[in-house]
Amino acid sequence: MQIEIRKATLQDLAAVKRIEDTCFPEAEAATEASLSERLQLFPESFLVAEAEGELVGFVNGAVIDEPIIRDAHYHDAALHNPAGAYQSVFGLDVLPEYRKRGIAANLLKALIGAARQAGRQGLTLCCKEEKIPYYEKFGLANSGRSDSTHGNAVWYDLILHFEERRGEQMGPKIILASQSPRRSELLSLCIKDFAVQAADIDEKAVEERVLAEAENGSFLDTAKELVETLAREKAAVIHRENKEALVIGSDTVVVLDEKILGKPIDEADAGAMLRAMAGKTHSVLTGVSILWGEKETTFASETKVSFFEWDDRMAEEVQAYVASGKPMDKAGAYGIQEEAALWVSGVEGDYNTIVGFPIALVDRAIHRLLAEAGTEK
């Protein structure tokens, strides 16, 4: 069977819509109006596969300025930026009777190739958990659970960072030792080419060791030592396998009443953490460790966050937030960039420390190391 992959045209709209409706449930499928808009605004990144004159699959996505797809990108094709940094994938669709023939793989490879040729920094997409292994075969790295609620489904952010761009002088390979899409998004503000590689360490064992070995001093100092140690050990795991790379590790904890609040173990734990913080001020500590050859820069940043007093409205909002599953991968059971922002009465310090990555400090630390070596990224 001969398969031809080509750029789509507006004349393909009816066939594209039929394929979309076959491949996705109604809540997730793009509307005909949305598909028409995409065909008109970014035909260069809307590719179709034809088998003997019949359209059997397609891949499409806007070019965007960040490595994470937002729900707004799906609904507003005007957010497409022809000069953007990242090629997104909104959908990779192949009719059921034509699957397992390599058509989806060829479509995705063609889009990746076009994005590289256009000088993009990478390719990004959202997928469901069961599809993660498939996309990892193409070099995409799982950056963790997405903030997207598209189609009321659970999605994961996957990103492929291109390591080479047209004619640019390359510095050291830079690796972010974290799956957090928030850290990846923030790092992309200052570093355009980096890889994401999660580090697997026993965080609980590290916490127990640091607390047991703590000498006289404030609990906050011990907590800072903890996040620095966690960040350093995460970076070290990846650095041992990538000796020439500049590796960035990071970790975040919340400190309340001389207790460390990490990621909740279940929904009840998440709810209890948020209830305990109501009406109080807590500290968010983010540690960062940068390893490059024999060089190391490790530090911790602290920001104080105050929550409003607990009331019936907050109780309802917390219950809904916990039920959404969003708190489960976050220290202190909340992300300030999410619904939890409604409970914050005040912030003292760097906002991005709360998000989980004090990017201004990270930027200065990275470029100080690169400048010392005479290499800029």
TrEMBL record:
Report the catalytic activity: UTP + H2O = UMP + diphosphate + H(+); dTTP + H2O = dTMP + diphosphate + H(+)
Report keywords, A-Z: Acyltransferase, Cytoplasm, Hydrolase, Nucleotide metabolism, Transferase
Which domain of life does the UniProt lineage start with?
Answer: Bacteria
Q: Which residues form the N-acetyltransferase domain?
A: 3-161
Write out the catalytic residues in the record.
D251 (proton acceptor)
**What InterPro entries does the record tag this protein with?**
Acyl_CoA_acyltransferase, GNAT_dom, ITPase-like_fam, Maf-like
| Pfam name, any one | Acetyltransf_1
Q: Has the keyword Secreted been applied to this entry? A: no
HAMAP family documented for this protein: Maf
Q: Which family does it belong to?
A: Belongs to the Maf family. YhdE subfamily.
Query: Which PANTHER family does the protein's record reference?
Result: BIFUNCTIONAL DTTP/UTP PYROPHOSPHATASE/METHYLTRANSFERASE PROTEIN-RELATED (PTHR43213), BIFUNCTIONAL DTTP_UTP PYROPHOSPHATASE_METHYLTRANSFERASE PROTEIN-RELATED (PTHR43213:SF5)
Q: What is this protein called?
A: dTTP/UTP pyrophosphatase
Species of the source: Trichococcus ilyis
